[in-house]
Amino acid sequence: MNSGRLFDTIVAPITAAGRGAIAVVRVSGSEAFSVARSVFAGLPENVESHRAYFGRFSHGDDGLALVFLDGRGYTGEPSVEFSLHGSPASVSAFLGACEKAGARMAEPGEFTRRAFMNGLLDLTEAEAVRDSVEASTEAQFRAASRNREGALHRELDRIAYELGGVLAAVEASTDFGEEVGPVDQELALQRIDCCLDGIQKLLSTAVAGRVAREGAAVCIVGRPNAGKSSLLNAILGSDRAIVSEFAGTTRDTIEEVVEFGGLPLRLVDTAGLREAENDVEKIGIERSQAEIIAADVVWFVYDVAGGFGEEERDWFEKIERPKVLVANKSDLGSGPGTVVSAHHLTGLVDLAKATQKLLGDITVGDSGVINSRHKPLLERARDSTLQARETLTGDVPDDLAAVGLRDALVAIEEITGKNTTDDILDRIFRDFCIGK
Ligand SMILES: Nc1nc2c(ncn2[C@@H]2O[C@H](COP(=O)(O)OP(=O)(O)OP(=O)(O)O)[C@@H](O)[C@H]2O)c(=O)[nH]1
Ligand SMILES: [Mg+2]
User: Fold this and answer.
1) Domain 228-362 adopts which CATH fold?
2) Homologous superfamily of domain range 129-205+370-416
3) pLDDT tens digits, residue range 344-395?
4) 272: Cβ below 6 Å to ligand 1?
5) 245 CB under 6 A from ligand 1?
6) How many angstroms does the Cα of residue 335 sit away from the middle of ligand 2?
7) CB of 339 sitting under 6 A from ligand 1
8) Alpha carbon of 76 to those of 73, 98, 213, 416: distances in Å?
C-alpha cells in the first residue's frame, strides 16, 4: 500500500450540520493518531486499520473511533473517524478539543484534496465526489457515480497514453533519426485517429452531462390562465407557484428541479404569452421568450375550454425547440396534443413519455460525462491533435507535430489533474462542502 505524503492534521465533521443521533468527525494527517489519543481514551498502543474502538472522549461523551492506517483510508493518510452523539454541543466541544490537541479545521474539500494529492483519485473523480454529495435526483447520482468510479478517468488515461506514444515516436525520430528512422506514419495516424475518436465521444457527452447534473430544462409556456403554474405544482406535489383565476398571475419565472417519470427536469414556469398590459408584465413575457430559447424542451400549454385556436397554433409553430403540445383542463373538454388535467393529475405519465421521447438522445447512457471545466480542455486537445495530424500528413518536418501532441497531452492532463496548478485546484475544491 502506498504511503501518502505527510500533511498537517485537519479535523471536520463529515456528517451534515445540525442535530442527529450520531455525528461523525474525521481527523486526518501526520499527527492524526496522537491527536486522537489526546481527545479519546480507547485506542491501544498498536491500532489496526479499519477497526472500531469504543472509548470515552475528553469532552465527556463516549463513542467509537474507526481507524485507518497510512495509505488505507479515504484521504490516503493516517486518519480516525469518530462517532459521537450528534448534538451541536457535543460536536463543537469535540472539535475544540481536537484543535487544542493540534489539529486545525479542514477547508472545504480538503479531505478529498488530500486523496487527490495522494494519488487515490484523479480530478474527474474528485469532482464526481462533489457531484455525488450534491445530487438531488437519482439520475444525477447515477451519473456522478459513474465518474466517481473512474469512467472518465480511464478513457482520458487511454487517450493520454496514445498521445504520449505518438509523441515519443516523433521525438525519437527527431533526436535519433539515424538509429530509429522516420516516424511510422501509418501507425501514428492510426493512434491519432483513435485519440480523436475518443475525444469526440467524450465531447458528445457534454449535453448529457449538463442534463444529468442540472436536469433537462423544460420551459412551460402558453396563454395566461392556461394552467402552467397549476401543472408545475401538480408535478412538484406542492403549491410552489401561485395559481389564480386571474390572467397574468405569474410575472417572474419560477424554477424547480424535480424527477418526473424518471427524468431529471428543471421545470421553468413562465409568464403567460400575450400583449403586455404594463411594463412588469412586459419584462416577464420577454423573460419567457429567453427561457424558450434556452430550453431543452418546451411544453406549450393551452386550456381545452378555450380551445387550440389560430393564435395558439401560430405561437406553437414559432417555437424552434423540441416541444410538446399540452392540452390542459381535460376535465372540461378535449383537444389536440397530450391531454392532461393539472387539477385531477391525469395524463402526467403521457406527458413524461412525450418529454422522454424528445430528450431520448441527450439523457445519459452508461459512459462517464464531462462538465463545463472539461469541455474547453477537450476541445483544445482535439484541435491540437488535429493540427499534429495535419503536420504528419503534410510536407512540413514531422518534429513540428510534437508541438500539437504535447499541447493536447497538457490539456488532457489538466482535466485529470496530472498536470495542474494550485490555482486550478483551489478553484475546484472551493465548491466542495466542509467535511468532503
Ligand atoms: N378545471 C380545471 N382548472 C384548472 C386546471 N388547471 C388549472 N386550472 C385553473 O386555471 C386557472 C389558471 O391557472 P394557473 O395555473 O394560475 O394558470 P397559468 O397558466 O399559470 O396563468 P398565468 O400565470 O396567469 O399565466 C386557475 O383558476 C386554476 O385553478 C385543470 O386541470 N382543470
Ligand atoms: Mg402562472
Assistant:
1) Rossmann fold (3.40.50)
2) tRNA modification GTPase MnmE domain 2 (1.20.120.430)
3) 999 999 999 999 999 876 665 667 899 999 999 999 999 999 999 999 998 8
4) yes
5) yes
6) 21
7) no
8) 5, 20, 28, 18
